[in-house]
Design brief:
Elements: H1 10-68, H2 71-76, H3 88-95, E1 104-117, E2 120-131, E3 137-147, E4 150-158
Antiparallel strand pairs: 1-2, 2-3, 3-4
């Protein structure tokens, strides 16, 4: 009768080594996925913040142009496609409302919707303007079109 030798301990160490390598690869993959997810989320959030800031700037510039009754500056804020639908007379009538075009201290957006299609990027926003006196505010809605890297007004409405 022949006796086979009992397997040595090194084979158990080999299995343990492969298990540890597998666990290490799994942990590395999970960490890498979490880092990539966090970076992608940060880019998304910072992109939205920069877009809202740019849109708020256009609305502030429009309000400042109205306060100064600067029709040329207001017209420059409108998208090329919207300029045919708004006239100088429309802007003069709108800017005649001195109560609406007082100095604005704060602009807050309540809703914000950006839509990108093959035709371009549009934004629909609504918010509130707060005036210097602090005792009054004005709700508004606006639609904007992105021309190149600049947001331009298509329409703005004060309820």
């Amino acid at each position: 009768m022949s006796i086979y030798p009992i397997p040595n301990q090194p084979q158990a160490n080999q299995t343990l080594r492969w298990v540890m390598i597998g666990i290490g690869l799994l942990v590395t993959t999970l960490v890498l996925c979490c880092v990539l997810l966090a970076l992608g989320g940060w880019r998304l959030v910072s992109g939205v913040i920069s877009e809202t800031s740019a849109i708020e700037d256009v609305i502030r510039q429009f309000m400042d142009a109205g306060r100064r009754r600067d029709i040329g500056a207001a017209e420059a804020l409108f998208a090329d496609t919207a300029r045919s639908s708004i006239s100088r007379a429309d802007l003069e009538r709108l800017f005649a409302n001195r109560q609406l075009f007082r100095k604005v201290t704060d602009l807050s957006l309540n809703s914000f919707n950006i839509n990108t299609t093959s035709e371009g990027t549009t934004a629909e926003v609504s918010g509130t303007l707060t005036y210097v006196d602090g005792s009054s505010s004005q709700p508004f809605t606006a639609r904007l079109w992105k021309e190149g890297e600049q947001w331009r007004l298509v329409e703005i409405d004060f309820r």
